[in-house]
Write a structure and sequence with these properties.
Layout (H helix, E strand, L loop, with lengths): L5 E4 L7 H7 L4 E6 L7 H13 L6 E4 L1 E3 L2 E2 L11 H10 L1 H20 L5 E2 L23 H18 L4 E5 L15 E2 L3 H6 L2 H10 L3 E4 L3 E2 L11 H11 L5 E2 L15 H11 L4 E3 L3 H10 L6 H8 L9 H5 L2 H9 L15
Parallel strand pairs: 1-2, 1-12, 2-3, 3-6, 7-9, 8-10, 9-11
Antiparallel strand pairs: 4-5
Helix pairs in contact: 3-4, 4-5, 4-13, 5-7
Length: 349
């Protein structure tokens, strides 16, 4: 059985009988985990083993584990700093900032892989332009060159651990104030302006071997009237053709308010696939996930399947052996997580 085009979430810390059936649905391709699915590393390891054992090839297991205010797993995991912290260290001492970013990518990936999680939806490649609170300190920097250097170092670390990277939110979410979780942001800049700034980190990271990209639920109204994740102009003409990207395109969550512009859940799914997405996220809405799974039960895209297979994690080690690795102790000591800002926490548990 090949990997289907739908990634959805679970209700609790173990699989329910209904969820076991859903994992065997032909349109199922992956599971995204949230804080509500996590108790401790032991429970997480058991849950991931159950998910992977349900079918062959194993379903992809993902999480948002960027660091800072977007870190779903905390108890028993190292508290990772937000991306902006690496940028701050880079401004003080560039070489040290890059080394820390590499250590951060490695530590994040190694700890997740030791529990069976395949990848995190990271790194954020949006520029911090001082406008978007939902991005804010999730961005490495405000300058494209600095951001690309730090993101590359971070990805090198994740690759060394055995994990693929997912750059988000193409072509850049940093130029709008609205939060696409709750509204549909409009970016009024010209394509030339986006190309000169926001697109540059994505272009560099594609050149460096970035495996996957997630587009933004943002309308760039001087380029297309559709949000980027539903736009053939952005995903086919720009991302695939102009930038030469050959990896996986994950939709952002089709349950977000900004995705409602595409219609009901089956319509959103059809629009995202037609635009060029390989896998669709449907989170925190079981009815929506069921509707999409049903609508896509006969969907088959061999090219997307090949791309998705590259997202499986490799080089797994046990948590015990990881904690005996001198590199783990060095990384934990080097990285100092910043305190959470309760006004900016993304409440998607």
């Amino acid at each position: 059985m090949s990997l289907g085009p739908v990634m959805f979430d679970l209700e609790g810390t173990s699989l329910s009988p209904q969820e076991r059936e859903l994992l065997e649905h032909p349109a199922a391709g992956g599971i995204i985990l949230f804080s509500r699915n996590f108790v401790d590393p032991g429970q997480l390891t058991e849950l991931c083993h159950e998910i992977h054992a349900c079918r062959t090839p194993g379903l992809l297991i993902a999480v948002d584990q960027e660091g800072g205010r977007v870190q779903r797993f905390k108890e028993g995991f190292s508290r990772l700093p937000p991306a902006a912290w690496y940028g701050e260290q880079y401004q003080k001492r560039p070489a040290r900032g890059l080394k820390l970013a590499q250590q951060g990518g490695w530590l994040m990936a190694a700890e997740l892989l030791s529990c069976g999680v395949d990848f995190s939806f990271a790194p954020v490649l949006d520029l911090n332009q001082g406008l978007s609170q939902v991005i804010g300190d999730r961005a490495f920097a405000s300058r494209p060159e600095t951001l690309a250097k730090l993101a590359h170092a971070w990805m090198q670390g994740s690759h060394e651990a055995g994990m693929a990277a997912v750059g988000k939110h193409f072509p850049g979410h940093g130029g709008v104030t609205a939060d696409s979780h709750h509204a549909l942001p409009l970016d009024t800049r010209r394509f030339e302006d986006l190309e000169a700034e926001d697109l540059r980190p994505f272009e560099r990271m594609i050149h460096y071997g970035l495996e996957a990209i997630m587009p933004a639920h943002v309308i760039y109204q001087r380029v297309d009237r559709q949000p980027a994740g539903f736009s053939r102009i952005w995903l086919q003409d720009v991302l695939r053709s102009r930038l030469g990207f050959q990896g996986v395109i994950f939709s952002d969550d089709l349950s977000m308010a900004a995705a409602q512009a595409a219609g009901g859940y089956p319509e959103r799914a059809a629009a995202a696939l037609a635009a060029g997405c390989d896998m669709l996220l449907v989170c925190n809405n079981r009815a929506g996930a069921l509707a999409v799974l049903s609508a896509l039960k006969d969907y088959d895209d061999p090219a997307a399947h090949v791309r998705l297979m590259r997202m499986h994690g490799h080089g797994h080690v046990t948590r015990q052996s990881l904690h005996l690795d001198p590199r783990w102790a060095e990384a934990v000591e080097a990285l100092t997580a910043q305190p959470d800002d309760p006004t900016l926490v993304l409440n998607l548990e």
